[in-house]
Amino acid sequence: MSTRSDALCWLKAHYGAVNGPVCTSKYYEAHESWTRTPVWFFQVPVRHIEGNQETYIHLVCRAPLNGNAYHYLRVPASYFREHFSKLGFTTPQIINLHLSAQTANMFDDERGKGKVSFSRFLMV
Questions:
Q1: 13: closest CA among 66, 69, 74?
Q2: For 36-61, b where at least 16 C-beta lie within 10 A, e where not — what string?
Q3: What is the distance between the alpha carbons of residues 39 and 41, in angstroms, rounded to a whole number?
Q4: Do 62 and 26 form a contact (C-beta atoms < 8 A)?
Q5: Over the stretch 22-58, which tens digit does the pLDDT of each residue have?
């Protein structure tokens, strides 16, 4: 199975069905990542955060060292809108997130201009 299909199965088993887009990422070791630090990489289409409806973007991160464990962040779309100018982009329509996997700044965006933190959205 792929990281995405494994992550979706894990999410459903632990949290049930979720509404809204689900983005998944494998764990990237430092030598594999653009930032040269351990990260999770996500591409979030801007269309998922547009509009006034209160929806959530679900970020599922494969945990390091254990292929069967994940971290789950449930992020309001409004949070992306509030920090839009601080995020990094591949194109004007794709947000690139490089979330740190290091303990000191876990779930902080490493690539964007504003180092936006997503840690408060971690579901436990």
A1: 69
A2: eebbbbbebebebbeeeeebbbbbbb
A3: 6
A4: yes
A5: 999 999 999 998 889 999 999 999 999 987 677 999 9
The pair of structure tokens assigned to 114 is: 């504003």
Distance (Å, whole) CA 85 – CA 71: 26
Q: What is the pLDDT of residues 109-118, one digit of tens each?
A: 998 888 899 9
- 103-107, long-range: CB within 8 Å, 24+ apart, which pairs? 107/71, 107/73
Q: How far is CA 107 from the centre of its chain?
A: 8
Among 85, 108, 82, residue whose Cα is nearest residue 97: 108
- Under 8 Å between Cβ of 80 and 114: no
Q: Which residue type occupies 23?
A: C
